[in-house]
Amino acid sequence: MKKYGKFTAVDSISFSIRRGEIYAFLGPNGAGKTTTVETLECLKTPTSGSVSIMGYDVRKDEMKIKSRIGVLPQSFSTYDWLTVYENIKYFGKMYPKHADIDRLINIFGLKEKRNALFRSLSGGLKQRVGIAIALINDPEIVFLDEPTTGLDPKARRDVWAAIKELKSHGKTVLLTTHYMDEAYYLADRICIIHKGKIIAEGTPEDLINRYGGGNTLILRECSPEALEHLAHDMPGSRVVGNDLQTPLPEGNGMESIIKAVSVINGDKLSCKEIYVKKSSLEDVFLNLTGEALTEGVP
Amino acid sequence: MFMPYDVLCSLKMLFRNKAWIFFTFAFPLVFFLIFGYLLGAPAGATTLYFVDHDNTATSTAFINALNATGAVNLINGSNMDLAQSLKDGNIAIYLDIPQGFENSVMAAKQGNTSAENLQIYYDRSKTTSLATVSVIEQVMNGFNLKLEGAKDVMNATTHDEATASISYLEFLLPGIIGMSIMSASLMSTVGLSASNRAKGVFRKLATTPISAVEWNAAKILYQTIVMIIMVALCLLVGLLVFGLHPTINISTIVFVIAGSIVFAGLGMIIASFVKDEEMAGNAASIISFPMMFLSGSLFPVDQMPWFLQIIAKISPLTYLNDGLRAAMITGNSSMILTSMAIVLVLAAVLFGIGVVNGRTTKLSFLSILLC
């Protein structure tokens, strides 16, 4: 547990991470993700409870832990007036031994920018330098705190590729994010945190199957006549604007789809398109908390 | 080894950033040159123009007596329009010896009429003119006494020790060095702390095994190197432009290093209170600007009004300047010791507060110690 005065940031959470997996803490801003990882990184001391990492106690063995972890802090950016190479080497000098700098530069596709000043790099490249710096001590566990916040879609893809690269090198990755697509794409297992508590944990598919509420058949842009007929004939359906949404029973979606198609066909009704929306982590979060994970998404 | 690489990187960053270079090195030199040229003109003889309309033995003797004082540099202005030059502000003062001066002096000596007056025209706004007037008056008194046949009873010999030993330029050089130590150390500490916090560098450092002691030592070493370069530049300009030869000894070096630590500590305190990067820079400017002018860097403290002297008393820079001036120029050993004691205590206290404050507020790299 971690308290700040009367505010409890993280309350009695318990989790374990397996070697070699990408483990994601998913939750909205202020959920307690960063507090949790900073406790593991020895940046914060828990108010109560025990935290062990690689068999070391965060209260007693911080030097041993620090030499075996690599951290990319939230919104980290390093020295503007040093080159990529100098920046990585700079952090390497903080450890008794460090990995080969040019090898890291190659792994993360920074070869062309080796001697470019950090300030001249794009957001995605800067973040990749940050990840390379996190790996300079050849750590067993890599912490990535909100690695793609503020990046454009292309840069996010680049960073995701870099994170996948970590896994292929056998690193255990602990990721925090408030992007469900990021967690879905990258994580082997996801831990959903809300208001300082863990509310669900599992593989992305597992979470979606358990809490996603199944798949939904969507009929888009239907005429008023069509909406009336369909709402009458499709059990459990609801009208949202000009759309009709019908939850599909697990493992037996085809029957509903065939029925919808035959209703439209038989009565010569007009609908613009028909598709099945798979439930997402967004739905999982909404169903578990009654709140949207991302602002603006209903 | 972290320290040498950290110092190397810090120097690389400094020399790659033109704005920092200007602020650290050119800025103090610009101040030095401007104030040196403005106020540091040699305080030697002032020029006195004269017109001798009388052209007699007495008027010539009077001119010679003026010349003999050595306090004025006499120029004969008979073929110049001195009245106009004075109006134009080109000259500060001139003396007009009217025709019939000798005759009227003789007449006055015989009878009771007083002699034809010497005419002195001067520009009150020029500070040197009043001094020149008093030189003329003294020479005149001497003449009067001689003419009366009086014998000198009282004599005074003046010894102009203070101004002879320290000119404004010699006053200025240590002041400029003190001022640059203050501004460079304060600005770079505040700037680095604020930007390292904003960029998450402190957070990153706290997850590495680097110790706060090593980090701090590296920063102080870097700051000292920068200051030594800066001091060397000031000395070079002082020598080449103004011909100054100050004393450089161990106490000068102690003042340079301790001064850097004082203002690094002050910078850390400012950075811990003002969290926003831009605001922190502004706060540092607001504090350093008055210090620059009110701590005896550019103007002597004892010539300031009493309320500004109070500010000078609480400004740490005053003691650094006093110490540097004593060490480099006057050699006043009791002043060196007092100032050094004050500066060292300030260094320990301010740096200590900066460190402890950084730890408790977790705003600086010293949060490492908390883990």
Structure description:
With 298 residues, chain A is of the alpha/beta class. Chain A folds into two domains: 2-210, P-loop containing nucleotide triphosphate hydrolases (Rossmann fold); 214-278, YebC, transcriptional regulation domain (Alpha-Beta Plaits), CATH 3.30.70.980. Chain A has eleven helices and 14 strands. Chain A has helices at residues 33-40, 62-68, 84-92, 101-107, 123-134, 153-168, 180-186, 204-211, 224-233, 254-266, 281-289; strands at residues 2-4, 7-10, 22-26, 52-53, 56-57, 69-72, 141-145, 172-177, 189-194, 197-202, 216-222, 238-240, 243-247, 271-277. In chain A, a hairpin with a 2-residue loop joins strand 12 (238-240) and strand 13 (243-247). The model of chain A has no long low-confidence stretch (mean pLDDT 86). Chain B is mainly alpha-helical. Chain B has two domains: 2-40 and 167-370, no CATH class; 46-163, abc type-2 transporter like domain (abc type-2 transporter like fold, 3-Layer(aba) Sandwich), CATH 3.40.1710. Helix content of chain B is 69%, strand content 6%. Chain B has 15 helices and four strands. Chain B has helices at residues 2-16, 18-39, 57-69, 82-88, 101-110, 127-148, 161-165, 168-198, 201-205, 212-242, 250-273, 277-294, 306-314, 316-330, 333-361; strands at 46-52, 72-76, 93-97, 119-122. In chain B, strand 1, helix 3 and strand 2 (72-76) form a beta-alpha-beta unit. In chain B, helix 11 packs antiparallel against helix 14 (316-330). Chain B is elongated, with a radius of gyration of 29 Å. The A-B interface holds A 41-43, 45, 62-63, 66-67, 69, 71, 73-82, 86, 89-91, 93-96, 117, 133, 137, 143 and B 1-2, 5-6, 9, 12-13, 16-17, 199-201, 203-210, 367, 370-371.
